[in-house]
Amino acid sequence: MKHVMNSVLSRTAARGGVLLLATATAAGAALLVAPAAHAETVDVAYSCQSPIGKKDAVSPIDITSVASGSGYTITMSFQKGVSSSPIELGKGAMNPSATIILGGADSGSVSVAGAPNGAAIPANTPIKINDLTGTYTPKKSGKVTFTAGVLIIKALGTVTTCNATNSPKPSLSMDVKAAGGGSATTPPGNDSTLPQTGPADSAVALGTFGGTVLLAGVAGALWLTRRAARTH
């Protein structure tokens, strides 16, 4: 009878260890796949003031980020053309740039710029803006929002300034960490609109936590098994 009981205890301990390992592994995996940021396409209504008059246009805009060193490479993408020219713009004649407004835990703006047009733009045709990129280095830690700001188009010695007139909402929101460890309190209301998890480094930290849980499960399984063996 004692031998039978010891066998049952050993099998129970083994099953308990497997259950702990499975639970810990699932928890670690779930933490690792947590999203780093929230991005969405936002319609931005631009009013463009050019040397020949005013032009209005709406373009859906995406803003994305990629971690780079202690900061991020920010990319602003235009889904539709804005403004136009009464004459053809030859290849390389148009140079775009813009500002992205920071909100939430950080403030200020990010300057982004793009390559000149790779092909001629016909007269009276919406000007397609190439992707604009720039570098953002967080000054404060916390949730930061990125919203389309002023667009500048330089062509043939002229400057066209396009302002967003519809108070667009942020195209990107993400948690960032300042290199110096600075922090700030996110203004009330931001959490209800764009709830986010941390960036890639936070996901790694959460994954490390999952690994710790996994090791705890292994230790528990070994302790139960050895205890059963000693009883036997």
Topology of helices and strands:
Elements: H1 2-32, E1 37-39, E2 42-50, E3 53-68, E4 71-78, E5 94-104, E6 109-113, E7 132-136, E8 142-155, E9 158-164, E10 172-176, H2 190-193, H3 200-231
Antiparallel strand pairs: 1-10, 2-3, 2-9, 3-4, 4-7, 5-6, 5-8, 8-9, 8-10
The largest sheet is: 10 strands, antiparallel
Shape, per Cα inertia axes: elongated
Q: What's the order of the H and E elements?
A: HEEEEEEEEEEHH
* Average pLDDT score: 73
Care to count the β-strands? 10
The number of helical runs is 3
Structural class: alpha+beta
Helix content: 25-40%
Cα separation of the termini: 11 Å
- State Rg: 27 Å
State which percent range the strand residues make up.
35-45%
Which stretches of 5+ consecutive residues score pLDDT under 50? 1-5, 17-35, 183-229
What does this structure look like?
- The protein has 232 residues and is α+β, with helices and mostly antiparallel strands.
- The chain contains three helices and ten strands.
- Strands 1, 2, 3, 4, 5, 6, 7, 8, 9 and 10 form a ten-stranded antiparallel β-sheet that branches.
- The longest helix is centred in the C-terminal third of the chain and has 32 residues, at 200-231.
- The radius of gyration is 27 Å and the shape is elongated.
